[in-house]
Amino acid sequence: MTTISTNLQAVKRRIIEACSRAGRDPADITLLAVSKTFPSGALREAHAAGQRGFGESYVQEALIKQAQLADLDLEWHFIGPLQSNKTKSVAEHFTWVHSVERLRIAERLSAQRPAGLPPLNVCVQVNVSGEASKSGCTPGDAAALCQAVARLPNLRLRGLMAIPEPGAGSAAENSALARRQFGMLRELRDRLNTEGLTLDTLSMGMSHDLEDAIMAGATLVRVGTAIFGERHTT
Ligand SMILES: *Cc1c(COP(=O)(O)O)cnc(C)c1O
Fold first, then answer.
1. pTM for the complete prediction?
2. What atom of ligand 1 comes closest to residue 226's alpha carbon?
3. How many Å separate Cα 173 from the centre of its chain?
4. Whose CA is nearest to atom 6 of ligand 1?
């Protein structure tokens, strides 16, 4: 077995163990492999080990890999900050966008989604930590943004996404902090579902905190490092 397939097995075991502690069904958790900065060969290996969904944060890099992997049946998720000048490429080449944080971007994605494709699945990213540096709309703006996004014709609003703040305390303190912030996202989703929306996705949890996310109700975890190894960013 390659390292990537071994790592994938280990992540799947972590998901299963977290589900058993949380009393949840592992079939309700989607594993997204976050492949940003890794070459297409690494994605090919992950695909050979059974992985189908891949998360990318940089549009140009993703388009190159998509062309190199066009022979495979992969599902592409855009998870990075999205500028207006990149919405067209994303609308044309991805199945999901997790990082919608303003209406203007959602409107462009809907207008630019090609007619022959099914609606683009989107999550609204919420800044649950309140850190100034973090992407995402404020929790207070989320309801209005979600209601507006849900009305756009070529998008399908699936749920919410968040990245909690990295804790600076002990492992137990960091885990409690992450769980509180994941819990906020879950409560927000539950409340929006009482206000007429039908959100089935909570995109939360990464390599270091996927257990906390699953305890708090995640339906999709975005895992990079634990599958592909450390990223060496330039
Ligand atoms: C890079 C990234 C991840 C993966 O993080 P790891 O810690 O490597 O698992 C998940 N979500 C988003 C939005 C990312 O940018």
1. 0.96
2. 9
3. 24
4. 224
